[in-house]
Amino acid sequence: MDKKNIETTTKKWLEDWILRLNLCPFAHSVYAKNQIRFEIEESNSFEKCVQKAVSEIVFLEENNNDKSQNYIDTTLLVFPNTFLNPNEKLNDEENTSFNDFLDFVALLDLYLEQNNLESKFQLVAFHPNYIFEGEDKNSKSHFTNRSPYPILHVLREESVEKVIENYNQVASIPQKNIEKLEKMKDADFEWLESFKK
C-alpha cells in the first residue's frame, strides 16, 4: 500500500472512529482547524523509526507559533511496515509486535525526559493489537486505542492542559468510552479488525 492510501486509511480511522464516536473530544477542534499533521514512516527499520519520531518532535518544537497560519498542533506518525506481524494473532500470549511498539514509545519518552521536553510533549500509542494491561483480552475497551496501523500520537502538553481547563469531565472520558463501546455490536468493529487479517 502506498503512502497516499495509508494516509487516507488513517484519516478514515480518525474521522469514522475517533471523531464519529467522540472517543477523544479534544480532537474535533484541531481537526477542524487542519492542525493535525499526518506523517508516514515506511521503513521497517527500528532505528529509522526512532529517527523519524525524534525529527517530528523537533519539528513541533521548532514550529510552536500558534498564531501562524500553518500552525501544527499535533502529529499522527504512522508505521505501516514496523511493529506489526501479520501472522500474529490477537490471542497470542506474547503479542510481540504490540509490546515492541510499547518499548519504542518508552524509548521516546526517555528521549523527552533526557532533553527536558517531557513538560512540552505527550506521547500516545495506538496499535491494531492494543491491549490495556489488566483488562480481559476480549474487552471492547481496547478499541479506544486500536488503529489500522501502529500510530504514535505526539501532542503538545500545553494544548492538552488548555483543553483540560475547558473540559470539566476529563476523568470520566475513559469510562464513557468503555460504556459506549460495550453497547456496540460485533459488526461495528469489523472494519478495524479487517486490517489484522
Please provide a written account of the structure.
This protein is α+β, with helices and mostly antiparallel strands. The protein is built from seven helices and four strands; from the N terminus they run ααβαβαββααα. Strands 1-2-4-3 form a four-stranded mixed sheet, sandwiched between helices. Strand 1 (36-40), helix 3 and strand 2 (74-78) form a beta-alpha-beta unit.
Summarize this, please?
The chain is of the alpha+beta class and 197 residues long. The chain is 42% helix and 11% strand.
List keywords for this structure.
four-stranded mixed beta sheet; 4 strands; alpha+beta; 197 residues; 11% strand
- Give the class from helix and strand content and strand pairing: alpha+beta
Give the uncertain stretches in residue-range form.
none
User: How would you spell out the order of helices and strands?
Assistant: HHEHEHEEHHH
Number of helical segments with 4 or more residues: 7
Order of adjacent strands in the largest pleated sheet: 1-2-4-3
Query: Quick check: average pLDDT?
Result: 90
- SS strand fraction: 5-15%
Give the terminus-to-terminus CA distance.
15 Å
β-strand number: 4
Rg over C-alpha atoms, rounded to the nearest angstrom:
17 Å
What general form does the structure show?
A: globular
State the helical fraction.
Answer: 40-55%
Largest sheet: 4 strands, mixed
